[in-house]
Write a structure and sequence with these properties.
- This protein is α+β, with helices and mostly antiparallel strands.
- It has helices at 3-9, 11-22, 34-47, 59-65, 126-145, 170-176, 225-244, 295-312, 336-349, 364-370, 394-410; strands at 51-56, 76-82, 90-96, 116-117, 120-122, 153-159, 183-186, 194-199, 201-210, 248-249, 255-256, 259-268, 280-289, 317-326, 329-330, 354-358, 375-377, 391-393.
- The strands form 5 sheets. The chain has a 6-stranded mixed beta sheet with strand order 1-2-6-3-7-17, sandwiched between helices.
- Bound molecules: zinc ion.
Length: 413
């Protein structure tokens, strides 16, 4: 029996495994049920024949990196290894197991049910990205059951906290875990016939405008922070126009531009009242950074623009704080690794393949930019990630399992 035939015969196991993962609501923040899911994932890797261990984040580091209200939530990453006979090189598969909070408006009784309907499995994390985990685990089971050896040594990591900043997840893994990958597959960012070869980075800033409170009946005595903030937000249109002139053409021929989104979070200061001149107003900036730009230069440029713009607005005093950043990455898909993956995708799915650059970020940059190894993004994906009725296609889950198995058995480095 071939791994593909095994997978066809065990499609139900894939769905059952994904449902089991979805029913552990690993919501981040704050980071719930991490102990339970990493224990399960470690057992699953071992059952598939890998040497697997759970790597806990040291408590001192956890306290240093996480906000106080999350200190009671331990962090773990899972690492599995499988040696291939005679292989000198290693391929690494990575997925994050945390999910964003569920929100409301779901059609099934629970966002964590894993209900199946019309060829789709529903639930928070089905598409982003527990489906990828289930597909890979089934591919590994298929290799073991059919006594098919991979052509490269295999490393698998399931990591925490991608939905916040990955610092204690993939960020920690590439710095501290005993890994030695030559190639990496981060199992999201590309899906269908599109393979991801890079993604945007991001700089998140928070801007606070400092005014002066006064009685609402005597606004002339105060400095209205909201009015100053509005002027500053309008001024940012200039910066948006500058950014819109920069372009990156992806291998698929799509033009990408850096973007700026303001006010995903905006707030008055404490003690705001209808009859008070607001003394404080703040808003967030989400600046997407193209591969080819750097987060450092994007931040420097944005801070300089804000400083200059505030200077032009009378009595507009601001402070700017960094919330976080994430590096962009891009590997030209000329390496044989990319051609091998494209061949696997075509053999399983048919049709042409394209290489894309994702506007959102994922954990690829930890492997591509930090470890400097050829890194691609590919997984079963799905629909409504981060929204209500998130779902993954059963057909695509099975296809991804076959593609992973095909890559493991055909790509020899
Ligand atoms: Zn994700």
């Amino acid at each position: 029996m071939t791994p593909a035939a095994y997978l066809d015969a065990h499609a139900g196991d894939l769905t059952a495994l994904l449902r089991q993962l979805v029913r552990l609501p690993t919501v981040n923040p704050p980071g719930e049920h991490y102990a339970a899911i990493t224990a399960l994932l470690t057992r699953e890797l071992q059952a598939a024949g890998l040497r697997a261990q759970r790597l806990p984040i040291p408590p001192a580091l956890l306290r240093k990196r996480l906000p106080k209200d999350q200190h009671g939530y331990p962090r773990f990453n899972v690492l599995g290894k499988l040696a291939a006979p005679g292989a000198t090189r290693t391929i690494h598969f990575n997925a994050h197991y945390d999910v964003v909070p569920a929100g409301g408006g779901w059609r099934h009784d629970s966002p964590f049910s894993g209900a199946v309907e019309g060829g789709w499995i529903y639930g928070r994390g089905t598409a982003d990205m527990k489906g990828s985990i289930a597909s890979l685990l089934l591919a590994l089971r298929a290799l073991r059951a059919t006594r098919t050896a991979p052509r490269l040594n295999v490393e698998v990591s399931f990591t925490a906290d991608e939905e916040t900043d990955s610092a204690l997840g993939a960020g920690w893994l590439v710095e501290h875990a005993p890994i030695a990958p030559d190639y990496a597959v981060v199992m999201e960012g590309g899906e269908g016939n599109a393979i991801c070869c890079g993604h945007n980075g991001v700089v998140w800033l928070n801007v606070t405008v400092h005014g002066r409170a006064a009685h609402g009946s005597l606004p002339g005595l105060g400095i209205n922070a909201l009015e100053k903030m509005s002027a500053l937000v309008r001024a940012l249109d200039d910066h948006k126009r500058t950014l819109a002139r920069r372009t990156l053409r992806t291998p698929a021929g799509k033009l990408m531009r850096p973007t700026l989104n303001v006010g995903g979070v905006f707030a008055p200061g404490p003690g705001g009242k209808i009859n008070t001149v607001p003394a404080l107003a703040s808003f967030s900036i989400d600046r997407r950074v193209l591969p080819g730009e750097t987060v450092a230069s994007a931040e420097r440029e944005l801070r300089a623009f804000l400083r200059a713009a505030a200077k032009k607005i009378p009595q507009c005093r601001i402070t700017v704080d960094k919330v976080s950043d994430n590096h962009p990455c891009y590997t030209p898909p000329t390496h044989p690794f990319f051609a091998a993956m494209a061949g696997c995708v075509r053999r399983v799915r048919g049709g042409r393949t394209v290489f894309n650059v994702s506007t959102g970020f994922n954990d690829m940059h930890f492997f591509a930019a930090h470890r400097k190894i050829p890194t691609l993004g590919y997984g079963p994906g799905g629909e409504h990630e981060h929204g209500a009725d998130e779902r993954a296609s059963l057909r695509e889950l099975l296809r991804s399992a076959k593609i992973y198995a095909e890559l493991l058995t055909t790509f020899g480095g």
